[in-house]
Specification:
alpha/beta; Cytidine Deaminase, domain 2
Length: about 140
């Protein structure tokens, strides 16, 4: 999976800014015949997940459906498409949680997760759903050309 350094930084900045809540957004890009994914655009979205009972912050994520709908409409007929989404894990590592697995329902989408510790983004990791589990994807950060 290829991600530009600029897009990586956008996700990390959003993750840090949203702390202690989770941020989220969509990944636009394409996939070639060798199953290599390339992100060409990062689209931040509002996290519309309601806080869990007894919590005051959003510690789950749900991408604003209107953002996704508008983006899907915009991309109609283009080579690029929504290929995944990203979200942050405040005070947790950049790896899928049991909640992520329980809520995953689109196996074709890529997941990028940003770890955040005490308000500072600590890293990114990419995954895709494979049956009943997530499998890691190699994340190649590319310099801008």
């Amino acid at each position: 999976m290829k991600l530009s350094a600029r897009h990586r930084q956008m996700i990390l900045d959003q993750a840090a800014a949203a702390y202690p809540a989770e941020c989220c957004g969509l990944l636009v890009g394409n996939r070639n015949a060798a199953d290599d994914w390339t992100v060409t655009r990062v689209v931040p979205a509002a996290n519309v997940a309601a806080p869990e009972p007894g919590h005051t912050i959003r510690d789950r994520f749900e991408v604003d459906p209107q953002t996704r709908f508008d983006l899907e409409r915009e991309l109609r007929g283009q080579r690029d498409a929504v290929i995944g989404h990203y979200h942050s894990h405040p005070d947790h590592p950049a790896e899928p949680s049991a909640t992520d697995l329980a809520k995953a329902f689109e196996p074709s989408l890529i997941w990028i997760i940003a770890g955040v510790s005490a308000g500072e983004a600590t890293g990114l990791a990419a995954f895709r759903l494979a049956g009943d589990a997530f499998e890691p994807l190699a994340l190649e950060i590319q310099d801008e050309e």
